[in-house]
Design brief:
Layout: H1 25-39, H2 42-61, H3 74-136, H4 140-157
Helix pairs in contact: 1-3
């Protein structure tokens, strides 16, 4: 009976060979965002318009032996359909990644807001405590007025002294 050994954590794992290709989702996501960002620019629209215009012009006015997609432009339609079928998921992937970043930013903002509220409440309590403590402290003006009142009271009680 063989005992299965637990993998050691201080040594790298052996690389398994699989038929499934390995890809890095993070780098694929960054690439898809770059493509989606490019698809949303005026530059892309200009390039696509020029490409379609050249394609149609070539296939309409070139000699018949050099035309590769005659008038209904079925091959051009196929290419544009393939481009659209790849563009939509790439844009959705980029939007999902942006949503994830927005969610993390929202959570960080909410945590910061909670800390700010807690700090504000703490400072409010401290200021209230200081006000209560200061109301019990004798100020110079209060002491002066009390001494003057005591002198007046003394003078009014004993006018002969």
């Amino acid at each position: 009976m063989t005992t299965r050994q637990m993998p050691r954590l201080d040594q790298p794992r052996e690389i398994r060979r699989t038929l499934v290709p390995h890809y890095d989702p993070e780098s694929f996501g960054r690439l898809s965002e770059r493509i989606a960002r490019f698809l949303g620019t005026a530059r892309f629209l200009v390039y696509l318009t020029v490409f379609i215009a050249v394609w149609m012009t070539w296939n309409m006015f070139a000699p018949a032996s050099l035309q590769f997609d005659p008038y209904p432009f079925i091959f051009l339609t196929l290419i544009l359909s393939i481009q659209a079928s790849y563009a939509a998921p790439l844009i959705l992937l980029a939007q999902n990644r942006q949503d994830d970043r927005d969610r993390v930013q929202y959570e960080q903002d909410r945590a910061q807001s909670e800390r700010t509220i807690a700090d504000t409440e703490y400072l409010t309590r401290e200021i209230a405590g200081l006000r209560v403590a200061l109301s019990e402290v004798v100020t110079r003006d209060f002491l002066r007025s009390e001494l003057q009142q005591a002198l007046k009271d003394r003078d009014t009680k004993d006018p002969a002294a």
